[in-house]
Amino acid sequence: MGGATLAEASVQVCGGVLGAPLLSGLIQAAKARLQGRRGPGPLQPYRELRRLWSKSTVEVEGATPVYRWAPATVAACMVAAVLLVPAAGVAPGWGVGHDAFALVGLLALARFAIAAAAWDTGNGFALMGASRDLTISVFMEAALVLSLGVASLSAGTTDLRGVVVGTAGGGAWATPALALAGLAFGIVVVAETGRQPVDNPDTHLELTMIHEGPLLEYAGRDQAYLQWAAAARHWIVLVIAAQVLLPHGRTVAAQLAALPAVLVVLAGALAVLETVVAKMRVLFVPRLLGVGSALALLGVAAWLAPR
Amino acid sequence: MGALLLSGVALVGTGGLLCAARSTFRTGLSLEAAGAAVVAVAGFWALASGTSVGGTFTNHLTPRLGLDPLSGLFLGTLGLVGAPALCFARDYLRPTGKDRAVGSLTAGFLLAMVGVLCARDPATLLAGWELMTLLPAAVILVAHQEDRHARQSVFTYLAVTHLGGVGTWVAVLLLARAGAIGSPGVIHAGSGLQAVVVVAALVGLGTKAGVMPLHVWLPRAHPIAPAPVSALMSGVMIKIGIYLMIRVLVDWAGPLPVWQGVVVMATGALSAVGGVTYALFEHDLKRLLAMHSIENIGIIVMGIGACVLLRNRGADGWAALALGAALLHTVNHAVFKSLLFLCAGAFERVAGRLDLDRLGGLLRRVPVVGGAFLVGSMAIAGLPPLNGFASEWLTLQALVHVPRYGRVADGLAGALALGALAATAALAAFCFVKVVGLVLLGSPRREPPVDARQPSAGMAGAVAFLALTCAALGVAPGVLFARLVGLAPWSAGLPVGMGLRLPGTGSLPSPAIAVFLIVLAGALVLVRGRGRAAALATPTWACGQMVSRRMEWTGAGFTKPLRLALEVVLRPQREVVSRREGGVLQEVAYRGEVPHLIEERVYAPTHRLAMAAATRLRRLQSGNLGTYVGYLMGVVLILLVAARLGLV
Q: Measured between alpha carbons, how far is A211 from B544 in angstroms, rounded to an integer?
């Protein structure tokens, strides 16, 4: 393992597994400042996780193993996805591969597990959230696959390491393909991380919940797994945004050096977005994501046109 | 290999005969199952060794049989699904007169399918094809002698498959006339003959496979057959259409022009998205599963379309991979769909009926069958690390290579198909979350019927075997996939490995992913309740109310956001009738359905037109002998005049 790979591996594991809660903490802190509140510090998610870790879990009466396994499955999927998404153009083979479409499968498995658990407990709010989440996922997955498809067309491979290398520097930006895919992916980021205008992560009103709804029946360590998974989702999509769909350097050193700054800027952008945009009606979200798919298709057309 | 296949066929045949007698009924079904297993061994042997036995393809009408690796794959699939389905049938069917006939006819059905797969000449092929259509119709008619609705469904099935099936005859006979059966390159690329053959094949074989918009028979016929026969119909019979489609479109008709590839891919995309969308709004488990067959056939046809397009653009390696993806999905779908149909049969015995909103809690009541159903649901939803994900991943890879090698038009078509497949996978996951939730989880939504029967060990064993096959094909898809890529007439194949390691992809190390997910999730489950974090038992939280059965969610409620989001396209109908007395709401009746657009907009008007035309034509039938003699005279006169003018 070369020095560059070692550096990338440490960034990937430390950043993805340990640093992911900091991302959501940063967004919360920035949002509070933007809204004129003092708000919690950026380390608040860690305190939450520590608190949840020492609290007791809950067994819902009459629930099957589906309920017990769901949070662990979600967390395991997110760990696999963190290992799958490289933080730069090289990455050690963790054994899970680095394929863009395999990532889509892992995200789908996590969604399936938590929605099945909602059926298991029969909690109405959980089912409401799950059904909305799954509805959005239909349009989100199309936009996600298409925008990743444009990036992989530009790079000539679906190996995310190769995609990071292939989209580096100025050459890949000669056509508007990547820019259009980047716009599409931006919409996917908002939907997948459950941020406004798609979902409001701060809501305490169960009737409006999407991603939070299925989490209502969990407590203690189960809840900790789920909250960590939600934070890891931020890391996964923001790293792809930074290293694939935004301009990035050619060398691994440049990519790794710029990554923290870009992530902070992207987190800030999400905070600004949450401050200036209100939550949209849940039925309009598919249209927004449809726009994303259309943009990505335009990206494919832009990539095809010069050929 | 040939002898093995023949002995398997003989076993199935003998079993079918023994089924006819009451005392030997179960022995007969066992022999049929054993025969299916032997056929599977012979088929997979042919695939693994890559050798052919028996005759080669001929364009003459003299009967000839043979076996090559592609036939071997489909025979293997037939046996792999058939053996557990027949084991299941041993305990599912009773030696009553009706079920004995079903058992015997099932043997005939299996043999007809073997006949199509082994046929090496047009006559045997078409004969087997027709038998394969008629025998399941006979099974359904026998099983539902009294049911008028079932008879009507069978009539629709026969009418649609025969009208559409004309395409098969046209395609096969035109190919035979041109001498192209078994010898690609005879038909010129881009010729009119090629276009006619391809379109006819797409119509004829697509009808049998259940491709939209020719699918209307499928959700009617499949659910009413007995569970093992449903499993064979959805698992194997519609795949025979895929088998011939691959023979004709990929091999015999030669390299196809771009527009034909786009048409194939577009029909696949329509079937995939349409099938799964309507499946979401079904209320009956078996009908829902039948609609999902349309979706999966669509995914397979998309793979074939990608193969055709990539071949046209000279990307032979990726064309072979696309074909392999389609074939792998064929095997995968056969396994998990038959698994799900067999489970549905077992659930019917436990819970009475199969209306989704009245099931529930079956994972606890029938753990083995319920667990197998959960595995099958996750496989069909395309979730890692099961087999459906492996083949959908491969199809996604094939589709993303269509724009890479194509020009603007076919490239955009490939991108659209890519997006359609991604949406299909998400819709399938949505649908099977609903199914798993309504069938397996929660509490039973209806008291079990008095004659509820636990599934026997044989039934549970059959579904458990299929669930294990799903897992095995998901963990090590590479072993089979390497062989499937080698089936392309122009390719040398891939090195064999457990996972999927393809050039230009991030590779799918499925064994490692499976181990990783299971070990890590298991560890997290172990840690979750340790020490101070020990679990507390609580009721489901509902804002402090007591949770009652009236608060349970229905499938219609769960899918409502999607129904509203797609309202413009789907045009759902709902009817709410409320009764008030003195300003107080007394009762509310709700009825809602999502009508099938193709049936309403295409089939219903066609049906009305045909009936009107038939009424007109009936006036010709006076019943008077003199009139008929007059008709004959008229025909003779017209022929004479035509001959005189040199027209005939």
A: 22
Find residue A18's DSSP bridge partners.
none
Residue among B206, B195, B168, B179 nearest B261 (CA)? B195
The pTM (predicted TM-score) of the whole model is: 0.94
Instruction: Output the CA angle B508-B509-B510, nearest 5 degrees.
Output: 90
Query: Distance from A170 to chain B by nearest Cα, in Å?
Result: 20
- Which residues are within 8 A (CB) of A272 and not within 5 positions of it... i.e. 6 or more apart? A30, A34
Size of interface A-B (CB pairs under 8 A): 283
Cβ within 8 Å of B, A 158-217: 158-162, 206, 216-217
- Residue pair A199/A210 in contact (Cβ under 8 Å)? The answer is yes
- C-alpha distances (whole Å) from A304 to each of A167, A175, A298, B143 are 16, 10, 10, 55
Q: Which residues of A touch B374 (CB under 8 A)?
A: 66
Adjacent-strand bridge partners of B591: B575
Tokens of B142: 């026998």
Nearest CA in chain A to B396: A101
Burial B105-121 (b: 16+ CB within 10 A, else e): bbbbbbbbbbbbbbbbb
**DSSP classification of residue A217:** T
Please state the domain extents for chain B.
597-644
User: What string of DSSP letters covers B615-635?
Assistant: HHHHTT----HHHHHHHHHHH
- Tell me if B149 sits within 8 A of B183, measured CB to CB: no
Rg of chain A over CA atoms, in angstroms?
A: 19
**What would the pLDDT profile of B172-214 be if each residue is shown by its tens digit?**
999 999 888 888 888 888 888 999 999 999 999 999 999 988 8
Interface test with B, best of A74, A145, A185, A285 (most B CBs within 10 A): A145
User: What ipTM, to 2 d.p.?
Assistant: 0.95
